[in-house]
Design brief:
The complex is a heterodimer of chains A (120) and B (646). Chain A is mostly beta strands. Chain A is 0% helix and 57% strand. In chain A, strands 4-2-6-7-8 form a five-stranded antiparallel beta sheet, with no helix packed on it. In chain A, strands 1-5-3 form a three-stranded antiparallel beta sheet, with no helix packed on it. Chain A has a two-stranded antiparallel ribbon with strand order 9-10. With 646 residues, chain B is an alpha+beta fold. In chain B, strands 14, 15, 17, 18, 19, 21, 22 and 23 form an eight-stranded mixed beta sheet that branches. In chain B, strands 2, 3, 6, 10, 13, 16 and 20 form a seven-stranded mixed beta sheet that branches. In chain B, strands 4, 5, 7, 8 and 9 form a five-stranded antiparallel beta sheet that branches. In chain B, a hairpin with a 7-residue loop joins strand 4 and strand 5. Chain B is elongated. The relative contact order of chain B is 0.08. The chains are: A mainly beta (120), B alpha+beta (646). Strand 1 of chain A pairs parallel with strand 1 of chain B.
Chain lengths: 120, 646
């Protein structure tokens, strides 16, 4: 389980991207918002990428002293036919945002006052 | 001033599935073909005056619904409505006093689902109070030696808490409990308020406090609610929890309920309450924890990303239930740590603890096969003693604990091997009965002069007067059961050799295999040495937890003083008294995440003396169990004595 990130903590991000086809140009971009500060490393990379080849950039970020810092990383590829594809991953101060969050079910109380997660 | 920072390392992975997208762009299928929808999970039938009002839970993949009616349960059904876009239907023009039976199907472009659970209602003029009754089931997953078979039969949710809930404000207006067949009944005044029935993942077998509960990692109890309905008349409300929802939570509940009933059959009482902690995405493994932040419980893995989920792995759940049993009815001295089924030089305490756990699926399933075979989840062709741990839909582990050699080979021997211990316990159950095992197991709790391991079990089996010969066959003895796994707790062929007078003379080139058995067993071995020749005397191939101490004696029985280190405990000079034994050179040794290796070492605890004879004559080697043995070892065991004259 991931450690709890506290305000001011230093976070090292390994941001990896892979394309499922050979591409002449893949670009990885990282955007920091919400007070998250870049400590070291680069926030972008571009170059060719082979099929399933993993490209990784490493950067170190300081979590904001208050509020939610956000790390947004995007990978973009442009295959030779001129089309363009991108995919995005987010990280919000200790919580990775899933692209398909699980369906939430209400927490209620049963007749004994206990918390229950109710599926219907 | 410097500020200390916590350094976290996080990974973000971006996968660009461009090939798939390009395929879509070039005219490939843009979406997966539709599949036939599942049947509605819940369905209700409320009796009215010359009418029945049906309701059911929505199916997300359904485009419409069909309703069927019959006049006999399971009888010929007539489609009375089709293409319904709503989740309710009022069947009017019925005869008061006549029972009607209904099922609903979900329909989409791929076809029509299987029918829902059947509900019935008998139209009548309104009266109060009314009875709301029904059946609660969950979808199980049958498994075999190759993993899940694909059969997903419905099983009863037994002894579970039922609540009638006001849909407008979630207040509970009545409670009940399912019986051993998943049936429940609630008496309540009629009301025009919308309500629903809720079943909780808890089982109350005795008293008012649930014995078994299944909760999220945060400690919230799982529950499933029916569709809403208005109880203006007697109602029949059925719930069938599918695998795709949280059927797994109800399987955990079912398995632990079986475990509780198994214990009751032995102890005439139930264990204290047990919680299963589970939720989809839990990657922390399956294990029993006596003191965890959430409290005592069995935590259940559900790592869909790796494909390893255990909520339907009954054998894994029974194994952990075995640890729970040990915590409350016996003595578990296991230090924990890494272990593998193929290890047969484990710490004896760890081997006993895990062997007990490994035997529990077979023992509980054998009991179920006699008392409630409908509760088994394994395919009929699968041995009851088969232990299956699925990964994905396949079998990550499949081993018949009653025939382990036939599964993988010949690892499964000795008192330091968990599978060997499981096999011994299964054999004893089959040949002598479970009550004897239980008597010894529970006796550990108040009487464990030495750590809980197979030796203690053996000793107490005899001290409690448990039978030494099976009632089923005079050819089956407790000795033969143990010897079947090469656990020899008996005098060897050299006995009596407890004094130099009865020592057998060693023949060079012919190693002697001895057992240390019984309190204070001492073996004397004589050998003839020639003056000024050097001899190496060693115990090796230590099995079944043996730890030797060897002493070289002169012909008159006095300790030879012409060599250093006489007597010798450990050939490597180490002192392991009370300590955990580190890894030795035996292949397959495992160390846990803390760097502790719970290895009982074939040779690590061996002894060795190098001796140059000051004169020609007979000398004696005295071998006994080391009093400075580590707690991982035993008092008994087998060793091989080798004397060489290089």
């Amino acid at each position: 389980m991931q450690d709890q990130i506290k305000p001011g903590d230093i976070i090292e991000f390994n941001i990896s991207a892979a394309s499922s086809i050979d591409v002449g140009q893949m670009r990885i971009e990282v955007v920091l918002t919400g007070g998250a500060k870049l400590v070291s490393g680069n926030t972008s990379w571009s170059g060719p990428a082979g099929k399933n080849e993993v490209k990784t950039i490493v950067l170190t970020v300081r979590a904001p002293s208050s509020g939610l810092g956000r790390i947004k990383a995007r990978a973009i590829v442009s295959p030779s036919d001129g089309t363009r594809f991108s995919a995005v991953a987010h990280y919000v101060l200790g919580k990775e945002v899933k692209s398909k969050p699980e369906q939430e079910h209400p927490v209620k109380k049963d007749s004994k006052g206990r918390d229950i997660i109710e599926y219907r | 001033m410097t500020q200390e920072k916590n350094l976290h390392t996080l990974v973000l992975l971006i996968l660009l599935l461009t090939a798939l997208i390009l395929s879509s762009c070039s005219g490939g299928s843009e979406s997966p073909p539709p599949v036939v929808p599942p049947a509605p999970m819940a369905i209700s039938a409320v009796a009215g005056d010359s009418a029945v009002t049906l309701g059911w839970s929505a199916v997300s993949s359904a485009g419409s619904y069909n309703v069927y009616r019959s006049v006999a349960s399971g009888g010929l059904r007539t489609k009375i409505a089709s293409g319904l876009s709503t989740t309710s239907y009022r069947d009017t023009g019925r005869s008061n006093g006549t029972p009607y039976y209904y099922v609903v199907t979900a329909v989409n472009a791929a076809g029509e689902s299987a029918p829902s659970s059947e509900v019935s209602a008998t139209p009548d003029v309104a009266s109060s109070p009314i009875t709301i009754s029904g059946k609660v089931q969950y979808q199980d997953k049958e498994y075999g030696v190759n993993g899940f078979t694909g059969n997903q039969p419905l099983k009863s949710v037994r002894y579970a808490g039922i609540e009638l809930v006001d849909a407008s404000d979630s207040t509970v207006t009545a409670t009940a409990q399912t019986d051993s067949n998943g049936l429940y009944s609630i008496s309540t005044p009629t009301t025009s308020a919308s309500v629903y029935v809720r079943v909780k993942a808890e089982a109350t077998l005795s008293g008012s406090t649930p014995q078994v509960t299944v909760k999220s990692l945060a400690g919230s109890l799982y529950a499933v609610g029916s569709n809403d309905f208005i109880p203006l008349g007697a109602a029949n409300v059925n719930i069938s929890v599918p695998t795709a929802l949280i059927g797994g939570a109800f399987n955990i509940l079912d398995v632990f309920t079986n475990g509780f009933q198994f214990v009751y059959s032995l102890a005439n009482s139930y264990p204290p309450p047990l919680s299963g902690f589970w939720q989809p995405g839990n990657t922390n493994g399956t294990y029993y924890c006596s003191v965890c932040p959430q409290g005592e419980g069995i935590f259940v893995l559900s790592d869909s990303s790796s494909g390893d989920t255990d909520e339907y792995d009954d054998d894994v759940l029974y194994h952990e239930f075995g640890h729970f049993m040990a915590a409350h009815f016996s003595q578990d001295d296991s230090p924990g740590g890494a272990h593998a089924l193929t290890n047969n030089d484990l710490d004896m305490r760890l081997a006993w603890s895990e062997g007990w756990g490994d035997s529990m699926p077979g023992n509980i399933k054998m009991w179920l096969s006699v008392n409630a075979p409908q509760l088994l989840s394994s395919a009929a062709s699968v041995p009851l003693t088969e232990y299956v741990d699925t990964v994905g839909n396949g079998a990550g582990v499949a081993i018949d604990m009653d025939n382990p050699d036939g599964t993988y080979g010949s690892y499964y021997y000795y008192a330091c091997g968990e599978v060997a211990i499981a096999k011994i316990l299964l054999d004893i159950n089959k040949d002598f009965g479970m009550q004897g095992i239980w008597a010894v197991f529970t006796n550990f709790r108040s009487n464990h002069p030495s750590p809980a391991n197979l030796e203690l079990f053996w000793d107490q089996w005899h001290s409690l007067g448990e039978p030494t010969t099976s009632l089923l066959s005079s050819n089956i003895t407790i000795d033969s059961v143990f010897l079947g796994r090469l656990v020899q707790y008996a005098p060897d062929n050299y006995e009596p050799d407890d004094t130099s007078q009865f020592a057998h003379t060693y023949t060079f080139g012919q190693p002697q295999v001895h057992t240390l058995y019984g309190a204070g067993d001492i073996d004397y071995i004589a050998f003839n040495a020639q003056q000024n020749k050097q001899y190496a005397i060693a115990t090796t191939n230590l099995l079944n937890g043996a730890d030797t101490l060897i002493t070289l004696l002169n012909s008159d029985g006095t300790t030879t003083t012409s060599i250093n280190g006489n007597p010798n405990d450990n050939a490597n000079g180490a002192v392991y008294s009370g300590a955990t034994v580190p890894s030795d050179i035996y292949p397959g040794t495992l160390c846990d995440a803390f760097g502790i290796c719970h290895d009982n070492g074939f040779d690590l605890l061996g002894s060795k003396l190098i001796f140059t004879a000051p004169s020609t004559g007979t000398y004696y080697v005295r071998v006994q169990s080391s009093s400075a043995r580590p707690v991982s070892a035993g008092r008994y065991g087998t060793y091989t004595l080798i004397i060489t004259n290089p």
